[in-house]
Design a protein that fits this description.
Blueprint: H1 8-15, E1 23-25, H2 32-40, E2 47-51, H3 54-63, E3 71-75, H4 81-88, E4 95-99, H5 104-109, H6 134-140, H7 143-154, H8 159-172, H9 178-188, H10 199-210, H11 212-226, E5 232-237, H12 240-255, E6 259-261, H13 271-276, E7 284-290
Parallel strand pairs: 1-2, 1-4, 2-3, 4-5
Antiparallel strand pairs: 5-7, 6-7
């Protein structure tokens, strides 16, 4: 299944890419948003395409091959955005896009255990050079540590029960696969409406493995340093922890007259988009402009 870029029309409207402008796609994924930006910035606008996942860089390079002379691909974290932009030799950045969602390729084809719907090893690393995997966390962290991760990063109401069940299960044998983890969770937690009982635990583990919130905090410090005056940054988040970080950061910098928010409330998918791409239902877009 091809990856469909979420909120594409809204991103283009608010970032408003023009001929020959330079952009950063800080989470290039399969390159859907990047393609649309490159089409708008023809003939000479350049784009830095960043992703921590080397497989995403490989897919994006293939998907964007017709723009190759206008794209610099960087296999790194957006937490290093200032260093990346400086090393790329760019002195003008008119816009930055962050899409904190996972690509279809990562969920369907990575084999790293991002989805509870597939039976795979419990890895969950975007960057395979990171030393700690989800398996390491599940089998080595104490019950209190697991509870705190599930509570803070998953906002899972039954975090304590699940942490206890995991510690009990791993005494019998090491937890190695997504199927084993889902089995443990399903024994102590029932489905709540449309939400699978493993959803928030998988979210929490992925965030912990990749230190996602820490990377967002790092990059937010540098976004105003990277953008030109009048330049814009768009942030697509898929869960409340990310959206809250962006919202509070934007509020703080607006008070200091460094940026202004272009939408007070986050934009969400239209009915038309939801019908075409149900995965867009939890996407929220916030856009800021540097003053």
């Amino acid at each position: 299944m091809a990856h469909i870029p979420v909120l594409l029309n809204e991103v283009l409207k608010y970032l408003n890419p023009q001929s020959n402008q330079n952009f950063v796609d800080a989470t290039v994924g399969d390159g859907g948003h990047a393609r649309a930006i490159l089409e708008k910035t023809a003939p000479s606008g350049k784009l830095i395409a960043i992703d921590r996942d080397i497989d995403s860089i490989i897919r994006a390079r293939s998907n964007l091959k017709e723009f190759e002379n206008r794209v610099i691909f960087v296999n790194d974290s957006f937490g290093n955005i200032l260093k990346i932009v400086e090393e790329s030799g760019f002195n003008r950045i008119e816009g930055i896009l962050f899409d904190f969602g996972m690509s279809t390729g990562q969920l369907e084809n990575s084999g790293r255990g991002f989805s509870f719907q597939k039976d795979e090893i419990l890895d969950m690393r975007y960057d395979i050079k990171i030393p700690i995997t989800a398996e390491d966390i599940l089998n080595n962290y104490g019950e209190t540590e697991l509870f705190e991760i599930f509570k803070k990063l998953g906002e899972e109401p039954k975090s304590r029960i699940i942490a206890k069940a995991i510690v009990y299960a791993r005494k019998k044998k090491r937890i190695k696969t997504t199927k084993e983890l889902v089995g443990i969770i399903e024994k102590v937690l029932r489905r709540r409406g449309k939400l699978h009982p493993a959803t928030l635990i998988f979210q929490a583990l992925r965030i912990e493995v990749n230190q996602e919130l820490t990377e967002i905090e790092k990059t937010l410090v540098d976004v105003p340093k990277v953008l030109l005056s009048g330049g814009r940054a768009a942030f697509i988040s898929f869960q409340s922890l990310e959206d809250r970080l962006i919202k509070n950061w934007a509020k703080d910098l607006s008070r200091k007259n460094i940026i202004k928010s272009l939408n007070k409330k986050p934009l969400t998918a239209s009915a038309e988009e939801l019908k075409a791409n149900p995965k867009s239902r939890s996407a929220k877009l916030r856009v800021i402009e540097k003053i």
